[in-house]
Fold these 2 entries.
Entry 1:
Amino acid sequence: MIRYTIISVLLVLASFLVQQFLPAFTGLHHSRILFVQLVFLCAAVTVSPPTMLLLAFVCGFLWDAHCGIGAHGGDPEVYTQPVESLRFGYSILLFGAMGYLMQGIQPLFQQGKWQFSALLSGIAIFLYLTAEYLIISFVRGDFVLSQATLLQMGYTSVLTMLFSPLIFWLLFLIADLCQHSINPEAGKKRRRTY
Amino acid sequence: MKPLNLIALLLFLGGAIWTLTRSERAVREIQTGYFSAVSPFLKSGSALETKARAFLEEAYHSKALEAELSTIRAETGRLRIIESRFRDLERENVQLRHALNFKDATRFDVVAAQVVRRHPTTWWQTVEIDGGEERGIGTQLAVLSNEGLVGKIDRADKERSSVLLLTDEKCQVSAKVEGTPEIGILSGQRGQFDDKPLLRLKFLSKNAVLKPGQRVFTTGRGGIFQANILLGTIESVEKGALDSEALVRPSVDFADLGTVFVVLSAAP
């Protein structure tokens, strides 16, 4: 189990490198594949709550380090109403919340029904983006929700979700290599059938 | 809840609170550490990406590229002559200013850089350029293209820098409208992901008389952007109860950014 935990942390770190080279789909309202979030969500359903929280902290911390924008600067007399940024670290809480959401259907995953988790990963990403957008709107005090934004969030969630079977396959492979069962009940059922 | 899970949750919340209370400087240090750790991968990855893109472009458009290259060569030669003439004029201008005892001569030192990558972030509109601190680039410097203002440097590493584009809501520029006394703050808009996003010019006077097509320039106020850099043209005007706002079409084609120029020093 320890080996599996260490490898899943390393997988999350590797996903940050992969994320750097995933382009935006300009034809689909600049939607993107959120690989880091996907790897986290898929891993979250396969581990215990403390490990999920560790992964959420690592992901949130690094994601904010990766995406953070500095203060505007300039003369405050001219730029009297600077556009506020989100505080460094807010993603940790978002990752944590999404992780708990994934953990909610862990019993189904443990029965071998990974398809529900794959579907939920798409929903979780949509909720993640919606929450992030709402926080931005709240902080900046001007709620604007255009159709383009909604479509960007929708396409991003769907595109990302399409890759979840690949990540689950990778996680099953890693679990096999580590001789660790991430869906023990499905294993028991298989053994009973034989 | 199991005791172990509760302890983990408390530790997680403690860690999150610790992170949320970091100062701006500490955050910048964390970001510097993060990007210096991933920079070897980014460098090799983006070099590979550039090569692959160049190879594909060459394979598909080799003839068109050849023709373009010869045109560019001719243009470069012409520009060199103009530049040498410009340098002469600049020198002469400085001498004349000195002779007239002017305080200082305007200088506009720029460093050219290539856009090597677009940041795959969720909302922020940023690009990465292949010039950094080694070439004198620092944060809060204006970035131009031959069409106008592109944005400003948000983060500078040793060999790379991140440019916050003018199309982002967070990039604010003090702007004036040509031929009018109107001055406002120009910035990008949230939720604009088209190829040609529009900018919003806020805080104009209530009865601003603006016509579509009028050009918008930087005022030079605010300490970041130099004066008289082209930003775009007025598209439409929206009158409000207290002030007016205008939609501005940017002069720069943000969908096709290649070479940009970072202004190292200039009198604002």
Entry 2:
Amino acid sequence: MEPDAAVEISGLNFRYGDRAILKGINMRIPRGSIVAIMGQSGCGKTTLLRLIGGQLQPTEGRLVVEGQDMKAISSDALYKLRRRMGMLFQFGALFTDLTVFENVAFQMREHTDLPESLIRDLTLLKLEAVGLRGVRDKMPSELSGGMARRVALARAIALDPMIMMYDEPFTGLDPILMGVIAQLIRDLNSALGTTSIIVTHDVQESLRLVDYVYFVSQGVIVAEGTPDEIRASKLPYVHQFVWGEMDGPVPFHYPASSMQQLLTGNSLHSR
Amino acid sequence: MLNKLRRELESTGSLSLDLISGIGAVFVFLILTLRYSGTSFQRFSLTIREIFYSGVLSLIIILVSGLFVGMVLGLQGYETLQTYGSSESVGVLVALSLTRELGPVVSALLFASRAGSAITAEIGLMKATEQLSAMEMMAINPIARVVGPRFWGGVISMPILTAMFIGTGVLGGYIIAVLLIGVDSGAFWSQMNAAVDVSHDVFNGLLKSFVFGLAICSIATYQGYSAAPTAEGVSGATTRTVVSSSLAVLALDLVLTAFMLKG
């Protein structure tokens, strides 16, 4: 692996039982870059993120994260590696029995012996960074979806990770919050040199933010390039996805018998 | 005909295999829980919090049920013993029934319904909302941090709740037999004192409840941890906890009683 790559994947296959989810994935994510993995829902993007985080094991192929071969990694080494990783889950995944403050302080309490006063200051700084110091005493159930996502981001960056993974960070957010989250990702990247991997299907916001894009369709990387290359791409799948067209290689209808047959009663057995 | 018989046999075999693999999975999960139990004792405040949720919050149902069970035993016991002219032994009947059988079994069944289901639902919902995955990604083992304290909180609570159930049950029997019916108070307590053996009756009863606690908490934590991450999955797991725990308590009671009587 070249020294400046945070994640390198070659010939990766992943299967759930007999069902192939990812096929022949090759990827290289340089350290300090912001990379997006795009594709339709269910194409295997989140699975790829879970493989990088070590929550799943590749069936075949090579996956190296921060110099560690994830197929051969021991449980202790994986836990050590995860201390340098952060992940923002799609719906935040805040601990519902803890306050906002305790959620953000959670990792510091678990992994460090820092004095309480320092944990308090660091936690408030993280909350300040996402603009939510004022909700420190609230419970997650009292927050809106966007606020919960920002608190989850503050929690994910609590220990200043080297690799940050974002699972659909823009889904369900209004344009203002989308901009806020995008700015936070950019700031984190420039301030800490964090490598960011964003799994998303929000094309326009992501293309403004990232350095490089991988397009995944049905478990295969179908296109890759810089945002400008992606915007200019003539590949039908990428074109349809980037410009949100209904017609194209991705069908609008899930495979089914014809409507005419259904209405004339000739397809009762093929419904 | 042969085909039908074959299908029946296949279905019975499949059910038996499911049952055996289910019991095996609970045991494997129990071993994992024990292996990662260090956190539960090194940071005992986490376990104390769970003792509060499983134990203290179950107190009302345990105490009220214990009182009523004791009262009913008092009434039934008096009615039966009066026929033989030994109504003063009602205290012995109440105390032995409670310490040997009713105390451990009924409090365990109540505990499975009240605390076991809550443990399963909580862990299952944490899984469904990706809180367990988030914990894993923070390099924190959810079995050590989430399962362990809940398991030990329940196991520690169970014998204490049983002791309280027995205590209030005896009080219930006293209220009915002595205060309402008029059995002699001295005879009630002295006969109980003479007939109840601390090691054979009280200790064995509490030992039973400890084993029941292990079984209920293993099943409850396993069901929560392995629940499908959907609303339907969590509700199914909660139901399975109550049904499996109740059956396990009754089956274990038979085995333990057989060994204890032999001893």
